[in-house]
From TrEMBL:
Residues 1-20 form the signal peptide. Residues 32-150 form the MD-2-related lipid-recognition domain. The keyword Ubl conjugation does not apply. SMART domains: ML (SM00737). It comes from the Eukaryota. SUPFAM superfamilies: E set domains. Pfam families: E1_DerP2_DerF2 (PF02221). Keywords: Signal. This is Phosphatidylglycerol/phosphatidylinositol transfer protein.
Amino acid sequence: MNRNFVFALILLAMLSRINAIPHQLHKRTTEFDACSNLPPETPVLDVTISPDPVVPESTDTFTISGTLKQDITDDFKLYIVFTDEHGNIISNDILDICKEVACPIKAGTLYQTTQDVYVPTLRGTSYIVVGIANGTESSDDVLACSVATA
């Protein structure tokens, strides 16, 4: 009886220890959603990253696509921005869309690109914002946007 009790105690201790260890096999994927500070009709870009989740101090590949409601002209750029929880920019890449493809890109046409982006050191809660905008402060000049927690 005493031997069974010791065996049960060891088994329970091992189970509680195993449940306390984070599950390394459960892969967390980065989910991009609509930017909350923009009108709800602003298109959401489809963004996938590789490797996922991002690896700080390395280069990740961002695959970005979306069908926009307005034409993309020479005035618009692709922004890939890393921010902290307060909205402070940690790092940003601003890419000239029209250097890659012929502009204008008509509304309703699928826009797709793949970009290699350096991922900075991220501390605390950080966000990845991917958007197409013309660089002004007005939210009216954002054609599409997506955001994810890094």
